[in-house]
Amino acid sequence: MHKYLDITWTGFSLVGMEDHITASAARHPMRVVIQRTGLSPDVLRAWERRYDAVQPDRSGGGQRLYSDADIERLGLLKRVTAGGHNISQVASLPVEELRALIQQETLPPAGPASDAESERLRSDLQHAWDAVERFAMGDLEATLRRAAMRVHLSSLIEDLIAPLLARVGERWHAGTLSTAHEHAATAAIRSVLGWVNESAVSRNGAPLAVVATPQGQRHEIGAMLSAAVAASEGWRLLYLGADLPAADIARAALTVGARAVVLSIVYPADDPQLVPELSRLRHLLPELVSLLVGGAAADACAPQLLAAGAEVLPSLPALRLRLGALA
Amino acid sequence: MHKYLDITWTGFSLVGMEDHITASAARHPMRVVIQRTGLSPDVLRAWERRYDAVQPDRSGGGQRLYSDADIERLGLLKRVTAGGHNISQVASLPVEELRALIQQETLPPAGPASDAESERLRSDLQHAWDAVERFAMGDLEATLRRAAMRVHLSSLIEDLIAPLLARVGERWHAGTLSTAHEHAATAAIRSVLGWVNESAVSRNGAPLAVVATPQGQRHEIGAMLSAAVAASEGWRLLYLGADLPAADIARAALTVGARAVVLSIVYPADDPQLVPELSRLRHLLPELVSLLVGGAAADACAPQLLAAGAEVLPSLPALRLRLGALA
DNA sequence: AAGCATGTGTCCATGCTTTGTCAATAGATA
DNA sequence: TATCTATTGACAAAGCATGGACACATGCTT
User: Which of A155, A157, A187, A240 gives a 20 to 30 Å CA spacing to B285?
Assistant: First the structure.
């Protein structure tokens, strides 16, 4: 593990000074830098050759020997370029400038360096969760919006927002998170989803979906997610929110000429009113209008829902696919 | 060397958002600008080519390199054009004027609106109402946003949104408007209010208000309006939504160090739980934290509310004044 | 009502930039 | 000797520049 130190000292005329040399003066060969920064050897050499990103010492034989400051600098450069900056533009900036750039970056603060997008989303999720616990809704919104700019809406919803909501709901049920936390998180997510939907373009002649929650279902969040998915698939939207009687939904769908009605069912899962209500809705809608039902509780009563004439979409990706096919 | 830039990405719930970030002398390539402004590359280039919106530096190879000021300017332009202004007419405005446009400082906020302006608002109200009846939520949002760019937020809320909501509620009670209409209108207004609040600047040390609806009160819209009023008075916000027990509200207020708790009471007006719940909340909150109660039904039980230790604000202007005095 | 002008977001085709990666050859290290 | 590392030169994918064109909505004119 620490073998490389020996190598280091053999190169230059430092033999015998080991005792006086502090860790910060140590010199590390390339493999250490690779391991600590995650950069490839080729990239390391290219950055040095083409942009003078660092000027490491050399061993007697000419091999690179990096200082701790070099390693830190390279780590910063990796972060900054991952945020979209050209290496050619930032390679010569002083360390403080690099730090300032990172502060502006759309990346979540801190966290171990990792290049995988999913790793970044995991870090976002953790950050978002911390924000919810602290009632730091500004942080939460900022994190979600940054992620929204970075990844596709489907990924935002399915890999970040949905897991976050699941975690919030879980802790809420367990009693370790207050209703206030849950409401605040919902409001912030609603704000972000609304903002995202604004940027979703929909052609003028795009098909229109009515999104709502049937009577008795008071949890709106599933409908919000469904709406976002529909928008990202290019549908125009009429968003009606939660807890609506079948007659109202049908009338709205007819008024605007919807091609699909998307419902979300979360809780309660065993509402006896649910199936008759959906059956009524199905009969009020024209044959051509699809009735899509999703949400955490939809799976449980899938047979009855199918019997009532609805399609059951057990997951958001499934809903996305179905909407894509219908469009 | 280091300047401070204002951030306008303050959303509907703002607690914990960093108020300032440091600017750097670095130049940013196009993809960073895309990320941070949400503009498309084509729009970016078109705005530069056709309207000289910004004049970025160029790299050795001719690629655009934007400054922090450029990015800020582009963000403002996006915001202003979303409000209905033509890009061709605002592209050359200095940043201060853009900011002024966003903060609706172009028109004097207070006082009796001019005849022309109030006439305009009346027409907007009619237009908005038509849109609600037709489920044309896109039209509704566009109308509200255009108005928001023209008049002060107080006027937008008190002369347009509140009357519209009153009319919707009235027709809904009378049975001439479906619940779906009411829900759809609420969703659209919520979206516009969130959008408007993004531009409400809150100073760094601004006082913080928790906005919610007490347990049993399921109508969220009054809380949304109260939140918008508070934001327009420069308060930071923690928005908790509807139907929360006193203990939760108190805990949230304590966690974030709120200086006021704003509650909205609309329906039912005769909930026997209401007064004890508010009394409980009053006792859970520190003396220094004001408890402000507004909403259509607050007037009816004003004596009991006062006895429970709450302040009753019978109208949105009254709430605005009180919040202004508290800040 | 139909037609025309204008504004604006988007798309395309072609060519240049940027940058990560690789190959070949040679030297260093353990 | 086996494994790293250095150097140079080259390549290719992704991104960007540019001018032009198109689509679509709005609003004005006939």
Answer: A187
Identify the burial level of A96 via C-beta atoms within 10 angstroms of its C-beta, where 0-12 means exposed, 13-18 middle and 19 or more buried: exposed
Distance from CA of B149 to the nearest CA of A (A): 17
pLDDT at B13: 35
In angstroms and rounded to an integer, the radius of gyration of the C-alpha atoms of chain B is 22
Contact B184 A84 (CB under 8 A): no
CA dihedral B212, B215, B218, B220 (to 10 degrees): 0
Beta carbons of A101 and A78 less than 8 angstroms apart: no
Can you tell me the mean pLDDT for B267-285?
A: 91
**Mind listing the pLDDT tens digit for each residue in A247-277?**
999 999 999 889 999 999 987 888 889 999 9
Contact B59, A86 (CB under 8 A): yes
Contact A188 B11 (CB under 8 A): yes
Per cent of chain B over pLDDT 70 is: 86
B73 — phi, psi (to 5°)? Answer: -60, -45
**CA-wise closest residue to B261 among B287, B294, B291, B233:** B291
pLDDT at A202: 59
A166 closest CA partner among A216, A211, A225? A225
> Taking a C-beta distance cutoff of 8 angstroms, is the pair B266, B298 a contact?
no
**Mean of the pLDDT values across residues B130-139?**
88
Low-confidence ranges of chain A (pLDDT < 70): 1-25, 105-119, 149-151, 198-205
- With the CA atoms of B225, B230, B234 and B240 taken in that order, what torsion angle do they form, in degrees rounded to the nearest 10? -90
Residue among B68, B64, B55, B28 at smallest CA distance from A86: B28
Cβ-contact B169, B182 below 8 angstroms? yes
- Look at B13 and A84 and tell me if their CB atoms are within 8 Å: no
A206: chain B residues, CB-CB within 8 Å:
none
Q: Which residue among A137, A191, A249 places its CB closest to the CB of B15?
A: A137
Rg (CA), chain A: 27
